[in-house]
Amino acid sequence: GRACLPQVGATAPKAMRLLPASGRTATQKVVVGDQDGVITCFGIKKGEAVPVFKTLPGQKIARLELGGALNTPQEKIFVATGSEVKGFTKRGKQFLSFETNLTESIKAMHISGADLFLCASYIYNHYCDCKDQHYYLSGDKINDVLCLPVDKVNCITPVLACQDRVLRVLQGSDLLYEVEVPAPPTVLALNNGNGGDSGEEIVYGTSDGKLGLTQITGSKAIPRWEIGNEKKRGGILCIDSFDIVGDGVKELLVGRDDGMLEIYNFESADDPGLRYDHAFSESITSIQGGCVGKEGYDEILASTYSGWLTGLTTEPVHREGGSGEEVKLSQEMQSKISSLRHELEHLQIKVLQEREKYQKSSQSSTAVSSVPAFSVNDKFTLNKEDASYSLILEVQAAIDNVLVQSDVPVDLLDVDKNSAVVSFSSCDSEPNSNFLLATYRCQANTTRLELKVRSIEGQYGTLQAYVTPRIQPKTCQVHQYQIKPLSLHQRTHSIDHNRPMNTLTLKGQFSFAEIHAWVVFCLPEVPEKTPTGDSITFYFQNTFLGTQLESTYRKGEGCFKSDNISTISILKDVLSKEATKRKINLNISYDINEESVRHTLKLIHPKLEYQQLLAKKVHLIDALRELQVHEGNVDFLLPKYRSILEEADQLLEEYKRQPAHLERLYGMITDLFIDKFKFKGTNVKTKVPLLLEILDGCDQDGLIAFFEAA
């Protein structure tokens, strides 16, 4: 059953908690902080919310945690707002206002007794009784922080979840070790709520929807289990442990940014299985298990981005027993419905009055136009599986339409979950103008829209989304996303050093900060802040082709190695352009490995073959269907043609989802051909039509021979 609870303002992840039950009642109070800076605390009686306290608005609340002396009920409420931490009692009386020395807003917070752990972008700070203890500067942005339970491990062991795909384990102000995880970790939780028997077990969730458990010992991490994201669901925003089944073993509760709520149970300690899921229409920012509505019935409480709180309860909605019980329930329901109807009528009248008032004031001579503020929660990420970018837009109010505009060529791909109607406008072919103009009109009550685009490496610029919600007066917000020159590359922990590599070396009068800024300009997932130390190495993988890139640079020198000549060619062009803009003379040298071209072609060829076969099959479907109608059966067809008919729907679906896949592969092979000879000082553009003919023939050896003979 679902319980409906009050709506608060838009919420950040990890900003809703259940207070421990106290005194005579077994039910728990809910406390939630929102982006208007308001903390709301309420209980539930007979299905109605009963307020306990509500604070005044202020800066937006990024985190809400519970604390108290160790081994006592954790019922003090702490919120991070701006660079300040405030503390409230469970009755709503403020007892702490701690203005930290952080220059940026707090993004993550953990509390354990008198210890307070705070993170703002790259900075970690540990305070004890509000006094500065330790400080650490991370190599990339920190998404979450927690500390292993002190009573179990007997020392303070903070763990940071960082954007560069690692968990950093600290000791004091120093890095103890790093734990590599498969994708950027967004959230951390203690396993079982207490770190397991050893107190060392941490569950992490990633931005691409993976979950894992790792044991953080004093010297190294021991990975225990990992769940991939086979169902291609959203990124993970919140995790809790709670025994909702009542079998004495806590289940793992997970909330995702596509609105999926999941419950995993454990047949054995290291084997989680999905037991239950429920889809909400917007991202789940916090999840908690407890007893809220009625004694004896546990529930799972979730808060969503726009501030709705929903409970999934174990209480049966239709009680068993005689028919008398049913009638009683419906009477209770009837009175509830009539009071809601009354409230609704009252609100409708109020809205009309306010609208009239606004119209009058906006037409008067002293009119001041008021633009309603609304918050947009957006996420633009590269998916490793299909080398496409997902743009997710979530708005507090319902979305009316979104206009997407791009000044570089991008393909819009199909998204299953997207119910919006898309229409394209034609674009002029002038340089520096639009390559894409598309409008998505949303159905009523859509607050979340997901789009997918695929970019072309070497073509860089900006994708813009103009978001218009259904609010009066009509307002629009513009959000911009950079499509970088090597947009399909993703950071990786290591590369294969045995591949044939091409090398590009730059030397010149540039600082470490300058060359770092150029690398940030060229590649996704590089931290904006210049790394500490004298030099840095980053590894990347091309998600479309599987080729790799190693970039190592310091003041006055940069070295880039890749098994794909086109990657090196793009870097050479963009880096020389950027240096020229800043009037810096670059000395560029390159070392081209002939073997690498054959290697890259061998990587591309299976993909090419697969897409060509798919295209051929799809082109045959209509003719085969016509034969089927004409002949009445398909027994006379060869088995390979019969199977095309049997799989027709899947084939069409797959082809529709990747409209320009084959064109992109042809484009990459053509670039490879041109780039190979560009480094030799030869222009082979006249030979491209011949290359395309060979590609249609699709013979790997013939293709390699053409590359080597040209």
Automatic annotation (TrEMBL):
InterPro entries xrefs: Bardet-Biedl_syndrome_7_prot (IPR016575), BBS7_GAE_dom (IPR056334), BBS7_hairpin (IPR056335), BBS7_pf_dom (IPR056333), Beta-prop_BBS7 (IPR056332), WD40_repeat_dom_sf (IPR036322)
Keywords: Coiled coil
Annotated Gene Ontology cellular component terms: axoneme; BBSome; ciliary basal body; membrane; neuron projection
Domain BBS7 GAE: 372-481
Any coiled-coil regions, as ranges: 330-357
Domain BBS7 helical hairpin: 594-707
Example GO BP: intracellular protein localization
Domain BBS7 platform span(s) in chain numbering: 489-591
Domain spans labelled BBS7 beta-propeller: 16-314
Pfam families xrefs: BBS7_GAE, BBS7_hp, BBS7_pf, Beta-prop_BBS7
Listed name of the protein: BBS7 protein
Species: Steatornis caripensis
Organismal lineage: Eukaryota, Metazoa, Chordata, Craniata, Vertebrata
Designated gene of the protein: Bbs7
